[in-house]
Amino acid sequence: MDFYNHRRERINVARFTKEGEEGEQQMSRIQFSREIIQEGMGFAPTDINCLVKLPGKKEEFDVSFRTSHLLDLCHWKYIQENKQGIWAGFRITILSDAQYKMTTIQFFSETVSDEDVDTWLRRHYGLLKRVWKIWDEDVIWGGAWKCQIRLRMDPQIKGKVCHLPNTIQIGENRGMIFFERMPRLCRRSQAGDHVIANCTAVICNNCRGQHKTQGCTGEIRCNLCGTDGHTFRTCPKSYANKMKQALVEQAESDQE
Questions:
Q1: What's the rounded Cα separation, in Å, for the pair 251 and 256?
Q2: ∠75-78-79 over CA atoms, to 5°?
Q3: Where are the beta strands (DSSP E) in the chain?
Q4: Helices (DSSP H) in 89-170: which residue ranges?
Q5: Cα dihedral across residues 112, 113, 116, 120: positive or negative
Q6: Helices 239-255 and 114-124: crossing angle, nearest 10°?
Q7: Left if phi > 0, otherwise alpha if psi is -120 to 50, otherwise beta: which for 42?
């Protein structure tokens, strides 16, 4: 299961702290579970691995969700409510350290280079080591790499990591990304509460703006380096173009 961890690290845990005045009547554990977690947020008992009320003067509850997706969904609801309604007076702190991930990248074409995968990952994640190819038992490459990454932290919510979609695109080549406890996000809007089949967001494939692609007047955005004004084919950071530029510079040097 997603919450199982043989190293006994805290996984998918959020701490709910009530920021009221001391002396106020506190909620019981079962009251918090039923009124806030189940009725207020819509989670089922089967979504929760463990829920404890902490001792002390502060009114605090630690909730361990069964998957990282459920933890992210809890945060998404918290942001949407903006500390109103059931969230009035509550503060959430993430207690899990889920930044470091051993990641698998799978493409379905042999034309994608190690260097371009490296460039894409460094743009989105903190890449700790260069990617390396995965070979099968017959020492044949199947279009997949592994690497260790460090997810970036959400600047708006303390302790929350920023996840990316399960897909990667470099040029015209699409691939998939996998890591342990990876949440399932919408490929279009990157929200955690639905998948693309139920998505109503409008995202331009040209400039990534919130409008239809047809009739877009914005500059095209490179899906390798993220810079506006060029595509992957002409990107100066692509491995193929770097090699071409190196050959041109070498030829000019030989002529001098």
A1: 9
A2: 90
A3: 13-18, 48-53, 59-65, 90-94, 100-107, 126-127, 132-135, 141-150, 167-170, 173-179
A4: 114-124
A5: positive
A6: 120
A7: left
Q: What is the pLDDT of residues 85-120, one digit of tens each?
A: 777 778 888 776 566 677 899 999 999 999 999 999
Cα-Cα-Cα-Cα torsion 120, 121, 122, 124, nearest 10 degrees, comes to 90
- Count other C-beta atoms under 10 Å from residue 31's C-beta: 11
Matching residue, tokens 């997603």: 2
pTM for this one?
0.59
Structure tokens at 97: 């350290």
Write the DSSP symbol of residue 232: G
Task: Let me know the angle formed at the C-alpha of 243 by 237 and 245, rounded to the nearest 5 degrees.
Answer: 80
The pLDDT tens digits for 153-163 are 777 766 667 77
Q: How far is Cα 202 from Cα 212, in angstroms, rounded to an integer? A: 6
Per the listing, tokens 């331009």 go with: 204
The residues of the chain scoring below 70 in pLDDT are 1-9, 20-23, 82-83, 96-100, 128, 157-160, 164, 180-181, 192, 256
Find all residues with CB under 8 Å of 184, minimum gap 6, and list them.
69, 166, 192, 195
